[in-house]
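Re-run with default settings, no changes from the original entry. Doing this only to confirm the output is reproducible before filing.
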Amino acid sequence: CFSPNLSTEAVATKCRRSRTKFTEEQLKILVDAFNKKPYPGYAIKQRLALEVNTEESRIQIWFQNRRARHRFLKRPEKNLDLRQDRAYPEENIQGVRDRRCRTSYTSSQLQTLMNAFMENPYPGIDSRQQLAEDIGVPESRVQIWFQNRRSRLRIQKKREPEEGSAQRQNQGQ
């Protein structure tokens, strides 16, 4: 993805998915859904994706971005009693049933993902789409797998110095 011959703008264009642009009608559908339920479940996001003719992952990102902007617009008072301010109590009950099923990977899929990760821990959209096609899972799952793997790698790197100092202390005793 990073090539010395490409400008920064060309690299961003090459590596990133193009911005999803919604029409007025699509935005009206999404805003109405957001006003009813800012944390929709997987089934609702799938239905909305069909309704506005886009991928479920784009709907998920739209809701995340909308919630982030909405937080700045409506900041709650700090002294409010949170137990009385439950705007969406049904979410807690339905949340478990409405989640996406956990994606299970076969050993060959994991091997393919790990090889790709060793080559490039930050693959662009084209690489992720090709990987998704190769292993037979949606691109959004490949994207999440890479995010989780990078996070796990950072955690492991943080633990290594701690484990090394603990071993040195045990050897000294």
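DSSP finds eight helices and no strands in the chain. Residues 78-94 have pLDDT under 50 and may be disordered.
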